[in-house]
UniProtKB/TrEMBL annotation:
One of its GO terms (biological process) is L-arginine biosynthetic process. Keywords: Acyltransferase, Transferase. NCBIfam families: PRK07922.1 (NF005921). The lineage of its organism: Bacteria, Bacillati, Actinomycetota, Actinomycetes, Micrococcales. It is an enzyme of class 2 (transferase). The keyword Metal-binding does not apply. One of its GO terms (molecular function) is L-glutamate N-acetyltransferase activity. This is Amino-acid N-acetyltransferase. One of its GO terms (cellular component) is cytoplasm. PROSITE patterns: GNAT. It holds the Pfam family Acetyltransf_1. Its EC number is 2.3.1.1.
Length: 180
């Protein structure tokens, strides 16, 4: 990545919010942040081992006191498509532009990685629409790429492909896509 890559957002804004790459010590904070959403079946729960194994995909938003108040990850699926996943905020920080900063940082990461399209599966349609995401229906990959992706054991890939085995967890979610 360029010099401005993952650290381009590594400055506190006027409200003291810092968006930075996640580190292993953030996993308990990620679990705390996603727990209310998992309880409401908005996000899929993740085991600690999965979070530690994918920590390099995550960004953390810190409040002015240094405590994590938001998280989000970018998972690359194929050469031109990635998914924004596990985007969650502390309830006290909703509607304070923290989610917008997180999403902008993840989109920046996607551009740095050479990804042209970003997918999300969400209940927050208006939020993502404000950032240029459009609702999609059928798969947006070619049949040969689909055949490769279907081999993945990653639940996010299964959601992206709209496989039946994830239907109980994703009922009601909207599939959205943004071209970078």
């Amino acid at each position: 990545m360029s010099e401005h890559g993952r650290h381009a957002f590594h400055e506190r804004d006027e409200h003291g919010i810092l968006v930075r790459p996640a580190v292993a010590a953030d996993v308990p904070h990620i679990q705390r942040l996603i727990a209310p959403y998992v309880d409401r079946r908005i996000l899929l729960g993740k085991e600690n081992v999965a979070l530690y194994g994918s920590i390099q995909q995550f960004r953390i938003a810190e409040g002015p006191d240094g405590v994590p108040i938001g998280c989000g990850a970018l998972a690359v699926f194929w050469d031109d498509i990635a998914e924004v996943r596990t985007l969650a905020l502390d309830g006290d920080w909703i509607h304070k532009r923290v989610g917008h900063r997180m999403l902008e940082a993840l989109e920046h990461d996607a551009r740095e990685l050479g990804v042209a399209r970003i997918f999300c599966l969400t209940f927050e349609v208006d939020f993502f629409a404000k950032h240029g995401y459009l609702e999609i229906g059928e798969s947006v990959v070619s049949p040969d790429v689909y055949a490769e992706l279907v081999r993945s054991s990653d639940e996010g890939v299964a959601e992206f492909l709209d496989l039946a085995r994830v239907k109980p967890n994703t009922l009601g979610n909207t599939r959205m896509l943004k071209i970078l």
